[in-house]
UniProtKB/TrEMBL annotation:
It comes from Gymnopus androsaceus JB14. SUPFAM superfamilies: NAD(P)-binding Rossmann-fold domains. Keywords: NADP, Oxidoreductase. The lineage of its organism: Eukaryota, Fungi, Dikarya, Basidiomycota, Agaricomycotina. One of its GO terms (cellular component) is cytoplasm. The keyword Nucleotide-binding does not apply. GO terms for molecular function: oxidoreductase activity. The keyword Oxidoreductase applies. Belongs to the short-chain dehydrogenases/reductases (SDR) family. This is NAD(P)-binding protein.
Length: 243
């Protein structure tokens, strides 16, 4: 593997946005190598087919959000094979409940927080030395506009359970920001549309395919800089979302 290769780690890579980004990278960038994280690699048939289509360009690894030892094991695999990681894309997320604060079960919040917040913290810690070994390290967890502290005041969508700037300000050597892919036609979006009682998601007319999202996302990652994007909350169109 050439030292000029770009090494990616993508979790949630077995479907949805994570899979689409991986597919886009492999189809357009001959010098990319992807570590694809999946909760159950043995059942990730689409990933296995992708590995056959692009031999020597993908390694499928078992990823569970918040699993400290499991994340460290992934880092060891990457260390032994490449010694660094250039881009970490956190595409694995949980969005299994919609409801107001008065009705949201605490256990639902715990599950979402474990996956969406603690999961990214554990991943960052596991990948830290590998990111430091990169000449242009980028750590980009996917979020959603539901994670904004201010935007949802005017948005009547009940996202109590879904609600990291510290990574950026504590580490001057890295480009780090949460990225909102917007309304993407994934299984999670379809499920949330069914659960939504406010009508907000039902009326969304500008949702995009995972493939379109992947094209926009890869462009943002390729062009992002610490000066322009570090510590911001970035939308898939490149604009900034209010924290």
């Amino acid at each position: 593997m050439s030292s000029d290769s770009t090494i990616w780690f993508i979790n949630g890579a077995s479907r949805g946005i994570g899979f689409a980004v991986m597919e886009k990278l492999l189809a357009t960038n001959p010098s990319v190598f992807v570590y694809a994280g999946a909760r159950d690699p043995a059942k990730a048939l689409a990933l296995q087919q992708m590995a056959l289509k692009y031999p020597g360009k993908i390694e499928i690894v078992k990823y569970i959000a918040g699993d400290i030892d499991g994340n460290k094991d992934i880092a060891k695999v990457i260390q032994e094979k490449h010694g660094r990681v250039d881009v970490v894309l956190g595409a694995a997320g949980c969005g299994s409940y919609l409801g107001p604060a008065a009705d949201t079960p605490p256990e639902v919040v715990r599950t979402h927080f474990e996956t969406n917040a603690i999961g990214n913290l554990v991943l960052f810690q596991a990948m830290l030395s590998l990111l430091k070994a990169s000449k242009n390290p980028k750590f980009i967890p996917l979020s959603s506009i539901g994670g904004s502290l201010t935007f949802t005041i005017s948005l009547p969508l009940e996202v109590t359970a879904y609600a990291m700037r510290g990574f950026t300000f504590e580490n001057e050597w890295i480009v780090c920001f949460p990225l909102s892919p917007g309304a993407v036609e994934t299984d999670m979006f379809a499920s949330n549309r069914e659960m939504d009682k406010t009508g907000v998601l039902e009326n969304v007319q500008d949702s995009i395919s995972p493939e379109k999202c992947a094209t926009l996302l890869v462009k943002i990652v390729d062009e992002c800089t610490r000066e322009k994007d570090g510590g911001e909350f970035v939308d898939i169109d490149g604009s900034k979302i209010s924290w």
